[in-house]
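User: Can you predict the 3D structure for this chain?
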Amino acid sequence: MHPILITAQQSPASDSALQAAVDYFRAGGHFMYPLLACLLIGFTVIAYKCLTLRRRQIIPRLLAEKVDSFDSIVGSPHEESLLEQFRRGQSSLARLAAVAINHRGKSAQDISEAVQTSARHEVLQLSSGMTSLDVVIIVAPLLGLLGTASGLSFLFQEMGKSGDMSDAQRIAQGIAVALNTTVFGLAITVPCVVAQSFFNRKIESFTTELEMALSKLVHACQSSNPPKA
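Assistant: Here is the predicted structure, written as C-alpha cells:
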C-alpha cells in the first residue's frame, strides 16, 4: 500500500485520539490545570536527572581506576597528566580529588575535612531537583482527590436542585467525569515514584563509591610528599 494512503488512513484515528484526550482534560474541570503543571514539573525533573546522574559526570570509570592506583602513579610520567585531569574538574570525582591534592602533605584529618566540606556540595548537586519530585508525588494525588470531591459535590448539588434522583445513567456519567482528576493525578504520581526510587538509589551508590575512592586518595596524599611549587 502506498505510504501516503497509510498516512491518510491513520490521520482520522490520531485526530480522534487527540480530541478524546482534549475532551477528557476539559471534563476534569479546573483542577486539571494544576495537575498538568505537576505533570510538566515531574517529567522535566526526571529528564534533568537522567541527564545529570550519568556515570561519566560523577565517577568516570577510567579516572576511578587511576585514583585507585594513585600510589603507583606518584612520581611516574603519568602523574602530571592525572593532576591536570583533577584540575579540569569535569566530574565530581575529579573536583573532590583536586581538593585532596591541594592539601597534599597535610595530616589525614585535615585532608579529610577539606574533602568532606566539598563533598557536601557535590551531594547537594547530585540531589538537585529531587525536592521538586517529592512535592509532585505528594501534591498530584491530593489534587486529584480534591478535584473528584469537588466534582461529586457539584453533581449532587445539581441533582438536589432538579429533584430528579432516578436517572442512574446520568449519575454514573457524572461520577465517571468526577473521577478524571483522580485518575490523572495517580497517572502522574506512579512514574514519579518509580523515578524517585531509581534516582535515590543511584545517588546513594555514587556517594558510596566516591567515599571509597577518596579515602584511598586521602591516604596517598598524606603519605606522599607535596608537589614542589
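Residues 75 and 182 are 65 Å apart (CA to CA). Confidence is low (pLDDT under 50) at residues 1-9, 224-229.
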